[in-house]
Amino acid sequence: MDKLEELKSKLQDFADARDWDQFHSPKNLSMALSVEASELVECFQWLTEAQSQNLTPEQKQAVVDEIADVQVYLLRLATKLDINILDAVEQKMLKNEAKYPADLVKGSAKKYTAYQIDENTQSKKAE
Fold it and tell me: Which residue, 68, 69, 67, is CA-closest to 29?
């Protein structure tokens, strides 16, 4: 059993021991995930760019805890929907590679919709 599957199993056992599985619908888990992601954002809310890159030990621990909470709900949601997260990430990276060709978008933060596809050459050109 790989580490991710082991974690999913531990989370299931944790929920089962508390009879919480009844509350872990995809809707509820996605809402909880959103709340935890917001709590992660809150850790950085009033920091400057420099401060966000040089957290105090206490700030970093708060970020660690919120990242863990996000991952817990994400794993629970994936389990409920029978989604293999690692496969999903690999598939999404393939889509992103097509949307954001490195030779075209390098150094740019524009969204993929800022580029248009040249149907004749199947290459992308910046608008």
Answer: 69
Q: What is the pTM of this model?
A: 0.83
User: Is residue 12 situated within a structural domain?
Assistant: yes
Could you tell me where the beta strands, DSSP code E, fall in the chain? 115-118, 123-126
| Least reliable range by pLDDT among 23-32, 43-52, 98-107 | 98-107
- CATH at 60: 1.10.287.1080
Ramachandran bin of 106, using left for φ above 0, alpha for ψ from -120 to 50, beta for the remaining angles: beta
Closest alpha carbon to 4 in 117, 62, 85: 85
Please give the tally of structural domains in the chain.
Answer: 1
Instruction: State which amino acid sits at residue 46.
Output: W
